[in-house]
Amino acid sequence: MKENIVNFLRKIFPFLTVIFLWRLATPFWNPGGILALIPIFFCTFIRPTPWFMPFGLVFCFLIDYNLNTLCYWTAIYCLCYAINGFQIFVDLRDMDYNAIDIFMIFIGVGIFLSEIIHLNWTVFGRMVWTFAWITTLYLPITNFIRTVEHDR
Amino acid sequence: MIEKPTSYKIMTIIKSVAAAMVLPVLFIYIMIAKPDYRIMNALAHVVLPVANAVGDVITWPVRVVGTMFDNLHELSTLRAENEELRVRLSDALANKNLCDVSIAENKKMESELGLARSIPHKTVIADVIHDNRALHHNTFLINRGTNDGITPGMVVVSPSNQFAGIIIDGGANFARVRSVTDTDTNIAVRIAGYEVYGFLTGNGSSTPTIGFFSDPNFRAAADLQLITSNISGVLPAGIYVGSMKNQTDVNVLNPGQLSRVIVLQFDNGSIYQ
C-alpha cells in the first residue's frame, strides 16, 4: 500500500512540479510562471513521460494567458515537439547535462522573438535576467526530477 | 544503443504530425478571431480557475511562508508608515477647505458652460489577486468578474481615484486588467489646467512616455498633472493618470503598488480597445 502511494507520487511528481512552478509566478523571480517551461521541456523531450505532452500544452496555454501572449509558447512547444519527432539525427535523451544547450536555444529564441517588437533597455534587461535565471535553474530542477524518479 | 521498435517509431511520427497540425489551426485562429479571441478566453476561463485551485493546494506551504514574511515586513514598517500618514493627513486637511471651494466653483462653472461629465453609475470594489508583470507585459488579475457585472473595456482606478488600467478580459469570478504601464497601453490624456492633449504609451517600465502633443510649442515640465481626455470617446474624461517626471516620462500607478482597486461602470458604455 505504502509502496503504491510512493510510486504514484513519484509518477505524478513532474506534473506537480509544473503546477507548482506555474502557480508560484512572481514578477521578478518567475514572470508569468515561465519557470514551468523547465519541467515541461525536460519531461517532453529529454525524459519523455507518458501523457505529458497534452499536459504541457495546457500549461503552455496558461503561461500564455499569464504573459498575455496569445498561443505563443503553445505554438513554440508544438513546433519543437513536431521537429523533434520528425528528426532522427539527434537523440536529446542521450545528451550531456540534460541537453541544457538545446534548452538554452529553445528558451533564448522563444524569449527573444516574443520581446523583439517591444525591445527597449528595460525589456532587454528583463529578457537577459529571465534567460540567465531560467538556464541557471534548469540543471537543479531537472536533476531533482531525475533523483525523485530514481533515474540515475 | 537500443534499437527502438517500429511501433514506437510510428507512434512518434503520428504524435509529431498531430503537433504539427496544431500550428496552422492556431495560426488561422489568431488571424480570424481578432480582436477578442473568444474561444481562447473562454477556454482560459475554465482552465485557469481549475489550475489555480490545484496550484493553491500544492503550493500552500510556500504561500503561507511568503505571507508570513510579507506580514512581518509590513509590521516592521508600520511605525514609519504611520508617521508618514500623519504628516500627509495634516497636509491634506490643510488643503481641504481650498479643495471644497474649488470643487464648488468648478461645479458652478460646469453648469454655466453646459459641460457634461460622465459619472460612473456603479462602482465595484475588487482585490488584486495576482500580479502578472512579466517582461514587457504588465497585467494583473482582480477577484471580480462577469458575475459582478464586469466586462472588458471598463476603467479601473485605485482607491485614491488614480487611473490603474483597463479590463481586457473577464471570467466568472476574476478579470484581467491591462495596467497603464503595459506596452499595449496607448491612451489619450490632457495636461490638467491646459488645453494640451497627448498620448501616453506604456513601454514595460514603471514610467510610461507621453508624446504627440496637440500644441507643438508646448514644453512639458516635471510635476505637471495628467488626466484622461475624452478624445474619440474611448475613455471618460477627468480621471487622474499621474504626474510628469521629466519632459517625456510620467509617474503612474504600478500594479505592484495595488492591493485593492475600484472598477468604474459608466452609462455611456464606451469601450476601450
Q: Summarize model confidence as the mean pLDDT of chain B.
A: 85
Q: Approximately what portion of the residues of chain B adopt beta-strand conformation? A: 15-25%
* Percentage of residues in helical conformation of chain B: 25-40%
Number of domains of chain A: 1
* Largest sheet descriptor of chain A: none
- CATH structural fold name of the largest domain in chain B: Thrombin, subunit H
Q: Output the helix-strand order of chain A.
A: HHHHHH
- What average pLDDT do the residues of chain A reach? 90
Biggest interface pair, residues each?
A-B, 45 and 48 residues
**How far apart lie the N and C ends of chain A?**
25 Å
How does this model look, in words?
The complex is a heterodimer of chains A (152) and B (273). By secondary structure, chain A is mainly α. Chain A has one domain (2-148). Helix content of chain A is 70%, strand content 0%. Chain A is built from six helices and no strands. In chain A, helix 2 packs antiparallel against helix 3 (52-67) and helix 5 runs antiparallel to helix 6 (121-148). Chain A is globular, with a radius of gyration of 16 Å. The mean pLDDT of chain A is 90. By secondary structure, chain B is an alpha+beta fold. Chain B has three domains: 6-74, no CATH class; 81-115; 122-273, Rod shape-determining protein MreC, domain 1 (Thrombin, subunit H). Helices cover 37% and strands 23% of the residues of chain B. Chain B has a six-stranded antiparallel β-barrel with strand order 1-2-5-4-3-12. In chain B, a hairpin with a 5-residue loop joins strand 10 (240-244) and strand 11. The model of chain B is unreliable at 269-273 (pLDDT under 50). Chains A and B meet through helix 1, helix 3, helix 4, helix 5 and helix 6 of A and helix 1 and helix 2 of B.
